[in-house]
Specification:
Radius of gyration: 16 Å
Order of helices and strands: HHHHHHHH
Number of strands: 0
Helix content: 40-55%
Strand content: under 5%
Number of helices: 8
Mean pLDDT: 83
């Protein structure tokens, strides 16, 4: 099985996402879990798990939260969000983000023969192929993160347009 080598594990991407959501909710004057849940239109009982980075969610749910918070979806995965400038929500749907992710991963694999999925286990490979062939309509954040590790790119970057000149960098 291929050893995934990224700066953080799959739990870390959920932690960063949850932490950034919590920070932005605070900027929107949401203090209690009830206020936060109502603002996000998300079950307040599950919200504490999400904000602590302990709940894996579907891409569509994450994009909907970005829309409600009026932040560009990829910015929610950048650590130390308050130290970075973020942009307003782009209006893209989760399908748009999924398609951009798939296009970018394919482009990277096509342009760099050292990046492939041959050495990961069969179960993971099957699921990766389903995502990359658009057989999974609404993947989870951890699934997308694990694929991002296989191509050695941060998750947020794969949700943005990558030019051909950028596919071999990093």
């Amino acid at each position: 099985m291929k050893k995934r080598k990224n700066e953080y594990r799959d739990e870390r991407v959920l932690y960063t996402f949850g932490k950034n959501i919590d920070i932005l909710l605070g900027l929107n004057k949401c203090i209690t879990y009830e206020e936060k849940g109502r603002f996000l239109r998300y079950d307040r009982n599950r919200l504490s798990y999400l904000l602590a980075g302990k709940q894996n969610i579907k891409l569509s749910t994450a994009v909907k939260m970005a829309e409600i918070l009026d932040i560009d979806f990829p910015d929610l995965f950048i650590p130390d969000i308050m130290k970075n400038k973020w942009t307003n929500f782009s209006g893209a749907t989760y399908i748009d983000y999924r398609n951009m992710f798939v296009r970018n991963v394919r482009r990277i694999v096509e342009n760099d023969e050292t990046k492939n999925f041959n050495s990961i286990n069969e179960s993971s490979l099957t699921h990766t192929n389903k995502v990359l062939n658009n057989k999974v309509d609404n993947p989870t954040l951890v699934t997308l993160f694990l694929i991002s590790q296989d191509v050695d790119r941060p998750l947020w970057e794969l949700f943005r347009r990558i030019d051909n000149a950028d596919t071999n960098s990093i």
